[in-house]
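Q: Is it fine to ask for two folds in a single conversation?
A: Yes, each is treated on its own. Send the first.
Q: Here.
A: Result:
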Amino acid sequence: MLLVACGPQDPCPHPQGLALDLKPGPVPASWVLVDPAAAREAPPLEGAVLALGAGPEDGSVAAGWLTGKDGLQLFALTLDRGTCVVQSWTAPVTQAGAEARRLVAMADGGLLVAGKAPGPGIGNDEAWVARYDSTGQTLWSVVEGEFLYVSGLFQTPSRESVTALALLPDGNIAAAGTADVNAALYSNWVLLLDQAGKVRQRIDLPRDDPRTLGELSAVVQQDDGSLLLAGTLAPDTDAADAWVLAVGRDTTLLWDRRYRAPGRQRVAAAAALGDDLVMVGRQRSGEAPGDAWITIVDPEGEATATASLRGEAPPSDTDPDESLTALAADGDRLLAAGGSGAAGGAWLLRLTPQGTPLDSRVLPGGGLLSAVLRRNQGLALAGGRLGAAGPPLLLLMAPAAQP
C-alpha cells in the first residue's frame, strides 16, 4: 500500500498506494508522504507522523493519522534499517465517538492510541486507550472514567481525556490525563494498564487548587519504578508554568514542583537523561512569537538548567512562533525536534546534556516535527508534518561530523 524512496537511486519496491517521496533538502534525506491519486485531481493528503518507535532488526515504526475521503485514518509503517517500508496499514478509529490524541508506535508494527470517548450519561467523556496490531486490527479498547460530585445532592458528569501516553520499561502502559467538571473543577490521574489492556490501577493525583487546569504531557518511568509526570499548570493563561510530579512505586506523591519563570512556558514532551528529567516546549512573553524552550530537572526536582532556542528560519516579515515538541535521549546527549508550523519550518537538533545545540537540520517552508527516534549508527529519525496542514513528513539526520 505504501511506497518509499530511500535515496537518489530509489531502491525500494513500489506497490500501489501512498508514497514516501524524496524531496530536495538536507543530506542525507527527507521524505514526504504523498498520495499518487493527487495527480488525478484528488484532494491533497493531510496528516502527521505522531509517534516513532524501535522496530525489528534495527528498523523502526512510524505511526500517525491521515485524512481523506473516508475521514480520519490511523496508520503505521514498519521501516527496515535502510528506512524502506516493509509493512504498512491504515485503519479507522473503531471506538464509536472516540477522539485520538496520543499515539505510541509499537515494535511489532502496531500502535497504542489514546484520547477520549463518550461515557455513560449526557456529556460525560471518559479516558480511552486502544491497541492496534501489525495489520491495523483492534486487539482491545478500554473506556475508563468516573463521575465527579459537585455537591451531596447532584452527580455531575466529568470530561476526562488522556493527554500523555507511554509504554513503560516494565511492560505496563501509562495513560495520564485531566478531568474537569463544567471547566471549573479539575483533577489529574494516571491509569496503569497491562499489555492485555486490563486496568491495574488508577492513581488520582492530589491538587493544591482544583480550580487551576493542569495539563500532563509526558510520563517517564525511572529505574526504581517511580513515575515522573511532566506538564503545564494553567496552560492557557499568563501564569502558565512547567510542572512535574514524582509518584513512588507505592503511588505516594514524592514531590510536586511548579517552575515559575518570566513569560509563559508550555511543556510538550519530556524524557529521562540519566537520573535527570528534560522537558521541552515553548516559552512566550506577551503577544510576541514564542521561542523553543528546554529545562533540565534533577532527581530532587530542582531545575539545573534552562534555555530558549530559535530555529534557523529564513528572513521574512513574520517571526515564527517556534516550539520543541519531541525529545529523546541520544546516548549521553539529546535529540530534540519541533518547528513553527508556519514560515520557519520543521527542525531537528542534537543537544548537549545542558541543552546547548551541537548541530541541526531545518526544512524551510513551514512544518512541525512531533516525534524523534535515535536510529542505529548514530542516525536520527524525526516525524511530523510538512506545512501548516500538509502531508506527513519523515526527516533523517546523519551523525554529527567529528572534529
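Q: Second one now.
A: Result:
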Amino acid sequence: MVRSAHLLAIVFAVAFSFGAAADRVDVLSLGSDAWLRTGPSTSHEKIMGLPRGTAVVELADMKTVLKQRGGRWVHVHVLEGRAAGKEGWVWGRFVSCCESHAWLD
C-alpha cells in the first residue's frame, strides 16, 4: 500500500507538471469503464469495477510514467468513488490523460 506522504508527493508533482490551479489538480482518469485488478494481467483477480471518469494516479517510477500507457498495464491508486484509496492494476487503454478534478471537495 502506498503511504499517504508518497501519494501526496505524486499528486503535487502531477499538479505542478500540468500547471493546475491551486484548488484543482490534473490527474489521470478512466476513459471507459474498467476492472481494477490485483496484478497486471487478466488472470489476476478483479478487485472491483471502476466507472468512466474515475480519477487515478499512476504508481510508477518516472521512466515508466513517461511511456505510452496504451499497450501496458498501469499500476494505479484510485482517488475517488467507492474504490477511493484502493490500489491495483488497469489496462492502459482505459487510462486517459488528463482531467481536471476539484481536490479535496
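Q: Anything structural to flag on that second result?
A: Two points. The chain is about 15% helix and 35% strand. The chain has a mean pLDDT of 78.
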